[in-house]
C-alpha cells in the first residue's frame, strides 16, 4: 500500500461538524476543511460559506470529501456522512469510561511522569540498538536483557501510560529503525493491556514489538533506504525481512513460539494478500494481528526516507479504510478506541491560530483536551507557554465559534516545523 498517495478524511469530528460527499454540499453550508490545502483552491480564506453554484461546482469537481461546520452555516441541513468516515464516533464510544481501553483519557503527562518514564524508555532504547547491531554483525542476541527491559517498561506503562505514549512521538528521521521498534513495543503493550490480555501476554506483545523488524538489518540497506518507489523485485526483497527475523529466533528457546510466529506473520492480511504465507484472517495469530496495526500506525506517523510523517488522524483514517482487508477489523477498532481522538504529545493547531501540544485527552472532549501552548521565539524555536484546559476556556476572536470557545482545528504531524518534543519534555509545567 502506498501511504504517500492515500488521501483520507479525519477520524472523528466535533458534533456540529460533518464530513460529507461534495456532491451533497448545498448553498448556505460553511466548508471548514477541504481534502487538500486551501492554497490549491480558488478561495482566499481557510473556510468558505458556499454562496454560489460556481463555488459548489468547483468543490464537487475537485474534492473527494469536505467538512462542513453547521454552527457557521446558514443552511443547517446535515447531509448523510461521507461513507468512509461513518463509524469512527461509534468506535470511540463503545466501551464504558472505566474500561482499560480508555486509560489514556484518565492520566495527564507532566514533567515528573516524563522523567520517570524516560528511565524505562532509555533502557529499552539501549536494548533495541544492541539487538539491531548484534543481528547486523551476526552476533548472538541478548534476549534475556531485552525481556528484562520490556518487563520494566511494562511497570512504567501501567503507572505513566500518558508519558510513555508521549515518548513514542519523539522521532528522528536518521534513527527510524531503532525508534520504530521501541515505539511498536510500547504501543503494542498499551493495546494488549487495553484488550485486557494477561500480564505475561502484555509483556510478550512488547517483546514482539521490539523484535518484529530485526530482519530488516539483513536486507539490502540501499533498497531499505531508497527514497523513491521500489521496483517489484526490490519490494519482494524487502518482504524477506519477516522470514529473516524468524529464522534468527526460531532456534532460541528463550523466545516463545507465539513471539516467533508474530515476527514471521506480522505482514499477513485478512484478505489473504499478505506475506510470507498469504494466511487469511482465520489463520493469522492474534499477536501478529495486533503488531501489524501498531507497526503500520507508527510507520505512517514517522519520518521516513521516502515519505513525510502523517498526522495521528491521517494514520487512523488509513487503518480504518483498510480494516478487514489489510488489517484485522477488531484490532483496528480496539486501537482507535485506545489511542482516541488525540493522544498526549500530539501537536495541534487551535481555531484561534495558536500551536499547542496535548497534555491530556479527556473522554467526551475530543476537540477540547488540556494543552500547553507553544510560542515561536525570535530564533524560530518553539517554547512552552501556558497550560489551557480547552473544555473550560473561551476567548472572543474571529476564528472561534459564536460562543467564543477554543478547540482543535487541525491535528499536526509529529515534528511539525521542527518542534522537538524531547526538548519540550523538560519544560512542561
How would the blueprint of this fold be written?
Blueprint: E1 17-20, E2 30-34, E3 48-49, H1 53-62, E4 66-69, H2 88-92, H3 111-136, H4 143-159, H5 161-167, H6 176-194, H7 199-211, H8 221-224, H9 232-238, H10 241-249, H11 257-265, H12 286-300, H13 312-321, H14 329-339, E5 347-350, E6 355-360, E7 370-376, E8 382-389, E9 408-412, H15 421-425
Antiparallel strand pairs: 1-4, 2-3, 2-4, 5-6, 5-9, 6-7, 7-8
Helix pairs in contact: 3-4, 3-5, 3-6, 4-5, 4-6, 4-7, 5-6, 6-7, 6-12, 7-11, 10-11, 11-12, 12-13
Which of globular, elongated, flat, extended, rod-shaped describes the shape? Answer: globular
H and E order: EEEHEHHHHHHHHHHHHHEEEEEH
Name the CATH superfamily assignment of the largest domain: Hypothetical protein af1432
Content of β-strand: 5-15%
| Main β-sheet, spatial strand arrangement | 8-7-6-5-9
Tell me the count of domains.
3
Calculate the terminal CA-CA distance, rounded to whole Å. Answer: 41 Å
Specify Rg, calculated over alpha carbons: 22 Å
How many strands, which pairing sense, and closed or not: the largest β-sheet? 5 strands, antiparallel
Residue-averaged pLDDT? 85
Let me know the number of strands: 9
Helix content: 25-40%
- CATH topology name of the largest domain: Hypothetical protein af1432
Which CATH first-tier class of the largest domain would you pick? Mainly Alpha
Number of contiguous helices: 15
The low-pLDDT segments are: 1-6, 395-402
Q: Do you know the CATH architecture of the largest domain? A: Orthogonal Bundle
Structural class: alpha+beta
Amino acid at each position: 500500500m502506498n501511504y504517500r498517495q492515500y488521501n483520507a478524511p479525519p477520524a472523528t469530528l466535533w458534533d456540529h461538524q460533518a464530513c460529507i460527499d461534495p456532491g451533497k454540499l448545498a448553498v448556505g453550508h460553511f466548508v471548514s476543511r477541504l481534502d487538500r490545502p486551501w492554497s490549491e483552491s480558488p478561495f482566499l480564506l481557510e473556510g468558505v460559506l458556499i454562496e454560489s453554484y460556481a463555488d459548489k461546482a468547483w468543490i464537487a469537481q475537485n474534492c473527494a470529501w469536505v467538512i462542513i461546520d453547521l454552527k457557521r452555516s446558514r443552511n443547517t441541513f446535515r447531509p448523510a456522512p461521507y461513507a468512509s468516515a461513518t463509524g469512527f464516533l461509534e468506535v470511540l464510544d463503545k466501551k464504558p469510561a472505566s474500561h482499560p481501553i480508555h486509560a489514556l483519557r484518565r492520566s495527564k503527562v507532566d514533567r515528573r511522569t516524563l522523567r520517570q518514564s524516560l528511565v524505562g524508555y532509555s533502557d529499552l532504547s539501549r536494548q533495541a540498538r544492541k539487538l539491531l547491531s548484534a543481528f547486523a554483525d551476526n552476533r548472538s542476541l541478548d534476549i534475556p536483557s531485552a525481556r528484562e527491559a520490556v518487563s520494566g517498561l511494562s511497570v512504567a506503562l501501567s503507572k505513566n501510560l500518558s508519558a510513555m505514549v508521549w515518548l513514542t512521538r519523539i522521532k528522528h528521521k536518521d534513527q527510524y529503525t531503532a525508534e520504530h521498534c521501541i515505539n511498536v513495543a510500547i504501543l503494542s503493550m498499551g493495546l494488549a493491556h487495553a484488550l485486557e490480555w494477561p500480564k505475561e501476554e502484555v509483556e510478550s506483545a512488547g517483546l514482539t514489538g521490539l523484535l518484529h523488524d530485526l530482519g530488516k538489518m539483513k536486507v539490502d540497506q540501499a533498497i531499505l533506504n531508497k527514497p523513491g518507489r521500489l521496483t517489484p523485485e526490490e519490494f519482494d526483497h524487502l518482504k524477506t525481512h519477516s522470514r529473516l527475523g524468524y529464522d534468527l529466533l526460531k532456534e532460541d528457546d528463550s523466545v516463545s513460539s507465539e513471539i516467533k510466529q508474530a515476527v514471521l506473520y506480522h505482514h499477513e492480511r485478512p484478505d489473504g494478500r499478505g506475506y510470507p504465507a498469504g494466511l487469511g484472517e482465520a489463520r493469522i495469530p492474534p499477536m501478529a494481528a495486533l503488531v501489524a496495526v501498531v507497526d503500520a500506525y507508527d510507520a505512517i506517523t514517522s519520518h521516513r526516507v521516502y515519505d513525510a510523517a502523517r498526522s495521528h488522524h491521517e494514520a487512523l483514517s488509513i487503518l480504518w479504510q483498510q480494516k478487514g482487508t489489510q488489517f484485522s477489523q477488531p484490532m483496528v477498532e480496539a486501537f482507535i478506541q485506545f489511542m482516541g481522538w488525540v493522544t498526549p504529545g500530539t501537536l495541534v493547531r487551535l481555531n484561534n491560530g495558536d500551536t499547542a501540544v496535548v497534555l491530556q485527552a479527556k473522554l467526551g472532549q475530543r476537540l477540547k483536551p488540556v494543552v500547553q501552548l507553544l510560542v515561536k521565539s525570535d530564533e524560530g524555536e518553539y517554547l512552552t507557554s501556558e497550560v489551557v484546559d480547552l473544555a473550560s476556556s473561551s476567548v472572543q476572536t474571529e476564528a472561534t465559534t459564536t460562543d467564543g470557545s477554543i478547540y482543535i482545528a487541525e491535528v499536526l504531524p509529529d515534528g511539525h516545523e521542527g518542534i522537538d518534543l524531547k526538548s519540550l519534555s523538560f519544560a512542561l509545567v
